[in-house]
Write a structure and sequence with these properties.
Helix 3 packs antiparallel against helix 6. 62% of the residues lie in helices and 0% in strands. It has 111 residues and is mostly helical. It folds into two domains: 31 residues, no CATH class; 60 residues, Orthogonal Bundle (DNA polymerase, domain 1). The protein is built from six helices and no strands.
């Protein structure tokens, strides 16, 4: 593993992962893990890249970026799902904030 050093860590959405791997696959052959990741991102990304980036920006007004990305990827549908996401986290969320998050998500939900 010479030369394999983490330079920066930044949370990104599944839509961004999908785009990165699709662009990489045009010039290179993907290995097993990359293929699995691309398959997962293709199946489970719920928004386009542009929508996901806008959604994360809106959610960052309420949450930290890592939490905003997780919420944007999972798109919880009700308060119980949202509470469950933060059950082990020490994120102080008021009921009003959670309702605002669900309202923002409803604007981006495709049904």
């Amino acid at each position: 593993m010479v030369g394999k050093k983490t330079l920066d860590i930044e949370p990104i959405t599944l839509a961004k992962v999908k785009e990165i791997l699709e662009n990489f696959s045009t010039d290179h052959e993907l290995n097993y893990e990359q293929n699995l990741t691309l398959d997962h991102a293709t199946k489970f990304s719920k928004n386009s890249l542009e929508d996901a980036e806008k959604l994360v920006e809106e959610l960052e007004e309420i949450l930290k970026k890592k939490h905003a990305v997780r919420v944007a990827d999972l798109m919880p549908e009700d308060l119980s799902d949202l509470r469950l996401m933060f059950a082990k986290e020490r994120v102080p969320l008021k009921k009003e904030d959670m309702e605002k998050i669900l309202e923002i998500l409803s604007n981006y939900r495709k049904e």
